[in-house]
């Protein structure tokens, strides 16, 4: 009797289990079309093997379009996405709006304490982690060693702006189509303004003073813009005002940029012989400083977050855990080599001797650790964020300022005109937004 | 012929179109008017309220505004001039007997089948790019400096790309019109000793007036709203050198997430479109006894 | 003599016409060629034609990276669906306007066209909210409705101009024979207007296929057509020209082929009443 009962109960339990396995949960994951995310989509077999009851639908879009769609969805409570890819700028703002699901309850094997402190700090609000970093980046200098050698110069591991200027001048060979330095010129808060804000930090400039008063009328910003425009017009590629991250990366892969200051994450592509014939000639250096104690490097993490409006939070958490776990990094390394492992999120990655042997590993981690979002400038500021100001108004304001600066780079405006315009515009917007009383 | 009952039937047949179009027009328009008087930023919803005409004032006082208006008109006008003139010439050319007429016409209308973002990205990356584009290679080959299309001539570059996309449409309509021109009339004129130019001036051009009117009208409606090509290529820059009114609205809606301002811009754009339409109908409407 | 002259004339015209045609077509051709090159070869300067590394790798990668058949299927459903629905609503309207014109018919037509004057970006949030609240977001039927409404004025206008060209006497004759209203449309009007309806259909399929704003704003996965497919290949990190070219070729080829086969119809049909 008891035996029969037990067998019966067992059968029921099995049936229930089978039923659960058949009840498939579908989650919609929105992601940018960057290399590391595309790679993840190719490794989904591993996820399905571990989570047979979850089906993932991808929405892969170019960064600007993705941001537009995801923001519209989350701000109107659309609930179309279960996992979204957002950056360090959005996470604290959206978390404060109550739009994101807290991630403190991820399973123990997620090992939250393994996250790099600087990255984790940027994604945490009031002690709760609101997004899990997929890859993190700072910015540094990459250059062609062969050209430096030919020009008879050495670029130190921790250069100053003066050394960068001298190197750019020495390596420029316009006849041969070699440009001394490639920097972002395309207008946008995540394009030229990301770079210029870090450059400003190293020059002792800042966006706002303690009373949210814009600072573009300061001598420091004038020095920043003067040097920036001079560097790019003298030694940069023609048409630099239309060059963003991707254009400069392309030029670097082709070997046309002797030097470039940009995201650390591109090191994987730059050193990949399949993508660039100059892969074995790439050298790296920290972002430059002006002797004021701050280097011009930023801090960013593309991260996976779960909108509060998602109706499949458990399945989404399982996915976020899988995609940002240590095991995922190991999986990528085993399938595609350590060079392609998503960088900049976990301490354990940089402790791994195989990864540490890569030419860019140490520079990357040093750059990330050198960025301090809570104390970005040499002077006190009322905001958090290294290459951005973590307030909702920043994206719109910085894009408008970016357009003005891009016009200055194109020679349509003088540096003084551009700075005066940027100042007037910022004062107007900050007053309208209620920051300036 | 138009009896009472057929009038009623006709009304019933037109009604569905009118009703759906009216809803499609009035609901978003009403919402847009509502938002245009509201402070509504997507990412700071807690700061919402009535703002009176502040959104409109922002738009009208923006240093970009008048440039955006003139760029919009420049884009529409530039593309119209290029497509009408080239379209007429090409239509005249391919209307004549040639070998391989079928494949030839296919090639001529091919740009029409290319999605606008694709068209813009082909031109920007494969042709106009200052380092990797084909034009730059030609310039270097000739010992000249590559032209910086997107930096120095952003508006001209955008107009060029859009004109390429719309050239087939203009050519097709003009070609169709040409085909209906009786060849006897032309032959008679030729017999009377009229030169080719005379024939074009006094017979062909008058015959094409209606077709040209149609091209202008339809293209204007589409061109007034163009921003995708600008987004793909110059992003309205450098500065605001290639910012049009729709792109200015796009920036408020997408970059700044300021729905109130974008709505005010939309209403301004509707007013502008109506002004353009008014002058258009006054100028060429009489050719259109529709 | 006259023959020789006209022959020489034909040679000259043929050469000129083909040169123009090839110049116009060249960007498309170059994009297709680029799609068969390696990424490094695609950006080589000077441009490589005979020395390029040819490969099918880009197509393989684009195919592997995204569910092309689904995007393609959505594009077909949305463009054909919106056109058919548009025709169903527009044919009666255009018929009535052409054969029972009132004083306000012309104004009505102009008003219909004017509904296209609101810039899409300005009504993005209102339309998005409407679609969200009605559950039409990311559904094919939602996109069919949106694109139908967008192109309806053009459809009505095109049909109206065709119908106007049909001599009223034919209808009178049919009426004398006792054909009802429906009979008029089915037996008389439709056969005569069929070429016009066909080219209206073609033009609107093309317009709907190429639409790249609403199709991205109003979809995520289920209804996303080829415009969204393209947006997943533009401006990623690293070299992407060849892959973008391959994706672009895959997105435009179906409609290009359709256009090629129906070229005659398009050339004949795109009158918009422009022919007297």
Can you walk through the features of this model?
The complex is a heterotrimer of chains A (437), B (290) and C (276). Helices cover 45% and strands 12% of the residues of chain A. Chain A is of the alpha+beta class. Chain A folds into 2 domains: 11-130 and 300-356, D-Maltodextrin-Binding Protein, domain 2; 139-297 and 372-432, Periplasmic binding protein-like II (D-Maltodextrin-Binding Protein, domain 2, 3-Layer(aba) Sandwich). In chain A, helix 18 packs antiparallel against helix 19 (415-432). Chain B is mainly alpha-helical and 290 residues long. Chain B has a single domain, classed as MetI-like fold, CATH 1.10.3720.10. Chain B is 72% helix and 1% strand. Chain B contains 13 helices and 2 strands. Chain B has helices at residues 4-36, 54-61, 65-95, 101-109, 116-127, 134-141, 149-152, 154-179, 183-191, 196-223, 228-232, 245-254, 259-284, and strands spanning 38-39, 49-50. Chain B has a two-stranded antiparallel ribbon. Chain B starts with a helix and ends in a 6-residue tail after the last helix. Chain C folds into 2 domains: 2-59, no CATH class; 68-269, MetI-like fold, CATH 1.10.3720.10. The longest helix of chain C is centred in the N-terminal third of the chain and has 33 residues, at 2-34. The relative contact order of chain C is 0.14. The mean pLDDT of chain C is 85. Chains in contact: A-B, A-C, B-C.
